[in-house]
Amino acid sequence: MSESVLSPKPVLVTGATGYVGGRLIPKLLESGHNVRAMSRSLEKLRHRAWARLPQVELAAGNVLEAESLEKAVEGCEAVYYLVHSMVAGQKDFADADRRAAQNMVAATEKAGVKRIIYLGGLGESDSQLSHHLRSRAEVAKILQSGSVPVTFLRAAMIIGSGSASFEILRYLVERLPVMITPRWLKTPCEPIAIRNVIQYLTGCLEDERTAGKTFDIGSGEVITYAQLMQIYAEEAGLPKRWVIPVPVLTPRLSSYWIHFVTPVPAAIALPLAEGLRNPVICHNDEIRHLIPQVLLRCREAIRLAIRQTRESVIPSHWTDAGLVPPLEGSYEGDPGWAGGTVFEDSRALDVGVPAAKVWRVLARIGGKTGWYHANHLWGLRGALDRLAGGVGLKRGRRDSRDIRPGDALDFWRVLRVVPEQNLLMAAEMKLPGRATLEFNLQNNSHGSRLTQTARFLPRGLWGLIYWYCVLPFHHYVFDGMLKKIAKAAAEEKE
Length: 494
What we know:
Elements: E1 11-13, H1 21-30, E2 35-39, H2 42-46, E3 56-60, H3 66-73, E4 78-81, H4 93-111, E5 115-121, H5 131-144, E6 150-155, E7 158-159, H6 164-175, E8 178-182, E9 188-189, E10 192-193, H7 194-206, E11 214-217, E12 223-224, H8 225-235, E13 242-246, H9 251-261, H10 266-275, H11 286-290, H12 298-310, E14 343-351, H13 355-362, H14 375-387, E15 408-409, E16 412-418, E17 422-427, E18 433-444, E19 447-458, H15 460-491
Parallel strand pairs: 1-2, 1-4, 2-3, 4-5, 5-6, 6-11, 7-10, 8-13
Antiparallel strand pairs: 9-12, 14-19, 15-16, 16-17, 17-18, 18-19
Helix pairs in contact: 1-7, 3-4, 4-5, 6-8, 8-12, 9-10, 13-15
């Protein structure tokens, strides 16, 4: 095997807080590489387990902003291109991806980077290729048009705990014993386990023979989505699922159905559903000889993902890729006239235990734990949000115990975490304005004081109407929440 000597220069990982990037970086560090992790949010990066290691540099950068990208790329030996605009909420993600790829070509050429490694999608170029897969292929062509050698890995569905594809599969099978599905659920595909993807990504960097080449990566097992559903049911201990294919379900209709049944919103589900109509099969196995590894079969990959999900061992999650709003969105210190009137509802409670015990309870809020009080109202608000096209409560949270900036927490996004002191979240539900929810903890002579503050910056008349409509519920919901948190903290074991 022809391997390159490890360079002292860092390897840039774009999308470092995304699903693949979040798992690739620990593997690169384990292999002895220096890593520069790039994300649009430094706050998200700082709270990763590897962020303070001496081999890691953190860089704030955006592939759509040429200047910040050039700074992130400068001095790097190689670049992993793991970003795409589908999750970023772009109305035209293809145009955003096109501009991002052009920026990367210019930045890497200017910096003298030696390698680009790009993870894209399988699928043969023809008029029937989905908009999403066509865009991923176009990104590859743009990257390859530059002078820096590009290794292009083409993958179909990635199976792993926390991936969007796996979460769709999991929720559909677990919640629907009978499913009316599109005919193209019988289209052949060749999935791959996330651990095999990470091994290929790492291996390509260390083997110079992969430079400038395109490889198809898969499990070696061709299967249909309908078969994957039955395998999941068997591995999860569920009865056989009845799948009834019909010709009338378009990808858009399917994405709406996925939106209501699973935590994955329609904006993300649509390109994934469109991709299912295209056969995505590996046509060459050259990479298996260059980077040999044990490829997990689909059943093995699903079994492992189920176990990790049940044990809450999820190193990265599809929701990790959400953009964290700036901290100024909390409106702290803003005068009342800055950017409009900010409504505030704050209430506090003395708790007879230290802040450390209260924090352990508070840090578990949301997800399977719920909101400690009036969960039926939280559930109703989540259902209304889903009907309006929002994310609802179904996203849950990445980990039932650990919480960090950038995490999705039901229909909130975590902005700031100061253990035993502060938790600040911004609303991602559909709202006529901007909202935050903040908890502050401070030790005192009684034990500690827990303060909860809701802030809302209304947008237009509907924003004002919304605030005054929900205000009467605050006393019941928030006062009850504080009391239940205090009770749980008093019962918390040391």
